[in-house]
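User: Modeling request: complex.
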Amino acid sequence: MTLFHRSLWFLASLALLVGLIWGWQILADARVLPRAFFPGPDLTWRALKRGVANGSLLSDTLTTLRRMALGWALASLIGVALGAFVGTSAWARVWIAPMFEALRPLPASAIAPVAMLFLGLTDTMILTLIAFGALWPMLLTTVHGFSNIHIRRREVATSLGLSRSAFITKIALPGALPDIMGGLRLGLTIALILVVVGEMVTVQGGLGARILLAARAFNAPEIFAGIAVLGVIGLLTNAVLSLVETYALRWQRR
Amino acid sequence: MTALKGLVLPIGLLIVWQIAAMATGMQSDTLAAPDGILVALVNGLTSAPFWVDTGDTLAAGGMGLALGFSVGAGAGILFALVPPVSRILRVTVELLRPLPSIAIVPIALLIFGFGYQLEVAIVAFATCFPVLVLTESAVRQVEPRLSEVARALGLTAWARITKIVLPAVLPRLFVALRLAAGIALIVAITVEIAANPIGLGSRLLRAASSLRPEDMFATLFWIAFLGWALNWGMLRLQSWLFPAMSRSER
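Assistant: Request completed. Predicted assembly structure:
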């Protein structure tokens, strides 16, 4: 398919989306859809504008973004470091890795009540929740990437007399990077989900608390506005990480 | 032998935890000793409400999975066999896909209220997109010669799907089901913690907010066990049904 065809299809696809939103508006105006649940794009837009005008939407968005970024960064640091340790040590792979594997299917949000009990309804609790939940994919993909380093490269490292830290930074880390990037991306998705869960449970500001409170007040336009912002956050963070991934792995395509 | 080595660390940690709890004579609203947790777990496993909660979570998650998987797989097959549909819906799907499923809880709460429907809807939404993506790519990778055979035989579209496409993608469809089942359990528990007052997630939250750490940790371990057992069972089922697939995945 040529570039021309592709952009034509993209435009058509965009037009369909606009059409769907327009159809939603028509159905909402005709009162076919219950207005209490599906308030229509116009009311959602008005709620968005109101939120931006009085600053509350912006500050909630920033709160959510800050928590998400901090928790994710924390999880990435711990996950990659711990993963590098486990992945380069045959001893740790036998004795420690099975416990990580067994813990992986545990729903991260199940930690929320435990974190709540220890840390109360606080910012720290939300960060802990995100860091704990987003840790696993990074840890496991890093371990996977490190244990799949080709045996020849290990031999090269040994014959060059590289120290363990030199082996990690010069050979293992670049080799494991594709796996690690996958883990970072998965972790980001989990971080976004968990920040919303954490904010819904603690009701300490942020978009999660905002849409939950809106639901309690039966304020559907406010919910849709919040969902729209969360969708944009998901879309943008994913797109940025994809760009970083393409850049960091550009050597792979050669 | 290696499997046993993996057990050493968790069991060692539990023993250290138990000794520390006994040595300090711990009385706490937040921490519990392993023996107390074990007693709570046994009490739970022999009481009806515990199983009602487990049943609620599994039923809501299972129904959501069934719905989400059917919609996702159906749409995936349609998207792959009729490329224009896939192209015209691309922007809409790509916009909805990264939306965290938990974000639509409030609106589903307004529509359905508390209960099964709320949870089923969220689980279905969360599982449908990964299944769609995996199914679409699986159907696209069906050997082109098979499609040529179908055309040469003059098969109808329906016969082509049931006789050629479905058998060819069945192993990868099962992988999609396995991954979606994991997501379904996670999302079901998450919805129960965030909003829905039924099931194990809500039990966990109740135990935490009424300061019963034994119950809380017992429920947590039970949830962890369910997640592990689900994953293990699906993997075993996969290697039993599709031995070739499991070998190539390793």
